[in-house]
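Action item from last week, closing it out:
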Amino acid sequence: MIISKTPLRISLAGGGTDLPSYYKIKSGLVLSAAINKHIYISVNNNWKPFFQLKYFKNENRKKIKDIDHPAFRECLRALCPPSSYCEISCISDVPAGTGLGSSGSFLVGLINALSHFYSFNYSKKTLAELSTNMEMNTLKQPSGKQDQYIATYGGIKIIKINKQGKTDVQKLNLDNNFINYMENNILLYFTGYSRNSNIILKEQEIKTAQSNKNIISNLDFIKSLALESIDALKRKSLIDYGLLVKEHWSYKIKRSKNISNSIINEMINSGLKNGAIGGKLVGAGGGGFLMFVCSDKNKLKQKMAKENLKELEFKFDFKGSRILESS
């Protein structure tokens, strides 16, 4: 049996510039962090002549082409040798559709597990690229490159993408004391509902591909904020970073009416009045988790508790996707 463990992520800055519709004309820059909430994929031999797949439903299929789940189907089509059958199970610490990059993490974990099960030897770079290609080109999802790369490498990373799509991953060198400070003063709260990010990302892809000046200008500014965010964290100024998060959110919501709504806006405004310096939705928007950068975390915790919002406590994950079992 092979079991992979792959982290989810929070996007710290630059989200949206990692989509090909933007980076192919301007290049992309994202600051992203893996967290210790994970997706687990197990792959085992199935001695009966069919594929047994267990996720939110169960599938038993004799032929790969008949598998309903697109990612399972296409990953098995790419990696499974002829006349080989397996059993695959998936478990996640956090539900899908909550803005923590679950689809990218799922693909990284699945390809990592299958590649070890079938004795392929992929480097981290190859694993990230295969997962990105699977999501973007095979599954035709409106995806960027951030999620697959941070899920593969882990840590707090600067992800640069040139116009040809070449991706460079750089470590953001921070000392342990400041990392602990970030973990203690960046808080995540569940809004109470999930969403499908494809609608928002597809809208951005279409507008950018049509050379929509407002969208491109907006993403240019988001990228400039990412550079400032990197500088702020290198200077160990979480206050400056929090102010940049606040500014980032004010520009992000201009990209689509689907990114936020009156309820989410009220949640963020409430946080800003009660101990938060900056706040935003993690991921494409529309629901999922709120991220607050705090000056007074206890005040924020008290307010969010009164609002019945559930906190997701986390620490950063510096290992990336890895194999737990190999037998």
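Closing note: Residues 213-234 form the longest helix (22 residues).
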